[in-house]
């Protein structure tokens, strides 16, 4: 199981908003196909969010491994058609995941 210390509270009014490693997250319940995704609770406020919130995987219908294998070539500067063909995905979801992954990557780079 992944450590919960890498997750932060996503509630903007919480005192722990955006702060990782404070031990404020607990697993409230699981959801999704096969109950494989965690719904995280904040111990400091009533906020609850998915472990995928704030990532390009939140709206993903593809398995995480497939999304990552599509995004890896795009990070190296490839277009959207060739990675889609290699993984067996249409170019439209590839472009959507590239846009979704670009915003957090830009924010991380600015940080």
Structural commentary:
The chain has three helices and three strands. The chain has about 110 residues and is of the alpha+beta class. It folds into two domains: about 5-50, no CATH class; about 65-110, no CATH class. Strand 1 (about 25-30) and strand 2 form a beta hairpin. The longest helix is centred in the C-terminal third of the chain and has 20 residues, at about 90-110. It is elongated. The mean pLDDT is about 80.
How would you summarize the topology of this molecule?
Blueprint: E1 25-31, E2 37-42, E3 48-50, H1 64-75, H2 81-87, H3 91-110
Antiparallel strand pairs: 1-2, 2-3
Helix pairs in contact: 1-2, 1-3
Task: Give a summary of the structure in a few sentences.
With 111 residues, the chain is of the alpha+beta class.
- Estimate the mean pLDDT confidence: 78
Share of helical residues: 25-40%
Series of secondary-structure elements, N-terminal to C-terminal: EEEHHH
Looking across the biggest beta sheet, what order are the strands in? 1-2-3
Class per helix and strand makeup: alpha+beta
User: Using DSSP, what is the number of strands?
Assistant: 3
Strand content: 5-15%
Q: Low-confidence runs (pLDDT<50, min 5 residues)?
A: none
The number of distinct helices, counting runs of at least 4 residues, comes to 3
- Total number of distinct structural domains: 2
Q: If you compute it from the alpha carbons, what radius of gyration comes out, rounded to the nearest whole angstrom?
A: 16 Å
Shape, per Cα inertia axes: elongated
**Assembly status:** single chain
